[in-house]
Amino acid sequence: MSVKKIISCALLVFPCHRESGGGILVIMDINFGGLNVITQCRRNHIPLWTCGPFLFIIMGGVNIAGMLTTGFIAQRFSDDPAVVIISVSIMAAFLFVVGNAVVSSFQRLADASRIKSEFVSIVSHQLRSPLSAIRWQLEIILDRSTQVPEEMRDTLYTIKKQNERMIGLVNDLLEVSRIEDDRIILRPEPVKFDTFVEQVIKSYEPLAKQSGVALLFVAEANGLTVFADEGKLRWVTENLLDNALRYTKTGGEVSVRVLKEGSEGRVEVADSGVGIPLADQRMIFTKFFRADNALRLRAEGTGLGLFLVKSLVKTMGGKVGFASLEGKGSTFWFTLPLIEGEAAGQ
User: Rounded to an integer, what distance in angstroms lies between the CA atom of residue 239 and that of residue 232?
Assistant: First the structure.
């Protein structure tokens, strides 16, 4: 192929212009950042081995290797150049078709996932305002209790409860969207771990009493301080505690322990509830997943709570785990790094 033809082909790929004072072609407007496939895959929150641009490069390498191998084999068995060219062309065409099908399939999945995330984010934002307005109106009506007939008050409280549940769901969906888009904002500060957890537990004592469940707290290490977002930490602790109370029957027990584990503070929430079937345990931190026995109990839930717990704790530099036996109960735990001085002490 002549130099002129090579340059003509290059013009189809890169926008160029000719310097006014000479005959040198200058390549313009090349976005080299777009060539970084790893950055593109991370931006779209797609694993590398299922990312379209990365697979395109891999399939290109496979195509070249296949053509070279086919050419080498063809030359070993035939001296006719036409046979070699045809063999290599057939192999190249076959690999191109297969590679294009693979890359296109994964790219469609990635696009569908991105569109779904954008849709959830937009819908959640749009739902938040009217739901908040409904809540404010209900609070105004219920504040005027003397003007509300007795038979209507219970109905209004039920509506308010369901409204708050919907607002909670919308907030969870927005939090999921922020996590998936790496837009989650943390405001870390020193938090007295054992004192903080004890305060959260005290706020759940009325619910535990109403449910007929014993709620216990044990601080095996006092004065632990972690560096965490207090709001996110409260959400994580409340979610685990709420789950434990919800899935524990009357007469059962929920215990919470705070302890020091190396350079980390650890919280364990153990219950004597229904437990998690072994077959469902590997999916327990997956979005929208709920165990079969939880669905049979018809307990309220969206399947987002534990996904958010794991994501938030991981974002704050900690770890999450659990142990469970169906019919016996579950123990969920999470750890957070202690502030340096305290990690070395005690």
Answer: 11
